[in-house]
């Protein structure tokens, strides 16, 4: 435990020191933690020694996913979803399930997995990660509708993919253990907890008897999140749906709480993300990367360059997006943090093909992080008008006008 904590602290400090450089170049903080975990793990140096069944792995996966789904939900309240649903609705309503199905077909026919396990992999790899789209979302020369599309989609699809992951994982664990009534109750209870607790807490603060000071305002949403987590664990409601709907509820009825928590919450979520990436990297060994065979690597590449692009192309037919915009949306479907944690959950689930599913998810995420984190700035510059026209063109044009 102490070695893992020391390793994380050291890599985190290095990431902070290199963060300014990372924003200007193809260097990626996510890739840094993934590679650091791989090098420090049992497969290479053995500094961070972790096994899939370790309590640290399960606990970190649970807390990290809860935190990220809570902050993701807080990005998109119902008013934003209603006012900007046309393009994100295509990506989420058509693109997400199509990506899931195409990925599952690849896993079944290329790798030979059963249909349930293939659909589970499709659900794990369907969500996109907003981290790699940061260069696009933050570039003011990128069309606003494209930035809004990527922002809303990446904030919502983690939560939308979650029920599919839970369902296929439950089926894969054995039909005799699957009780749809219990599963529905767990999911419904999670949604109820996620809506009722934030609503009650925010309405309570809005009464004349209570008021949060400026200093403590950022802790309001944190306290709500912790209460949702505690009640969810005590009642066996689904923690992750509770987190996602709690974030949406805060964003919908507690604009002040949302704004005060935004920066603080992003930092907390980022710490958990990076810790999970380090652990994920430590569980990836050279033998794991070699054991998937050429079929596994071919599946990983096709999941990135075929599944998402084909799904987006079909989803955005006659949408009004330019070819360049569609290409950017299609390429920036990286497999990141949510897929990492879903993969860790499967690894600790005890299902028979858990290791094979994790291996395929792992190589796909590794390929995605390396490919997408090194191309985000390049793709963002497609929309830089100053780069579309060479500098010498303007100089020559001005000289010609002066001569006239």
CATH C-level name: Mainly Alpha
Helix and strand run: HHHHHHHHHHHHHHHHHHHH
What radius of gyration results from the CA coordinates? 22 Å
Task: Work out the number of β strands.
Answer: 0
Shape by Cα distribution: globular
Mean pLDDT: 82
Biggest sheet: strands, sense, closure? none
Helical segment count: 20
Structural class: mainly alpha
In helices, the fraction of residues equals: over 70%
For the record, the count of structural domains works out to 1
CATH topology: Na+/H+ antiporter like fold
Unreliably modeled segments:
386-404
Q: Strand share of the residues?
A: under 5%
Describe the structure.
- The termini are far apart.
- The chain has a single domain, classed as Na+/H+ antiporter like fold.
- Residues 386-404 have low confidence and may be disordered.
- The chain has 20 helices and no strands.
- The chain has helices at 2-24, 29-40, 55-75, 78-83, 86-111, 115-125, 134-137, 144-172, 180-205, 217-235, 239-253, 255-283, 286-291, 293-315, 323-331, 337-347, 354-373, 376-380, 385-388, 391-403.
- α5 crosses α6 (115-125).
- It has 404 residues and is mostly helical.
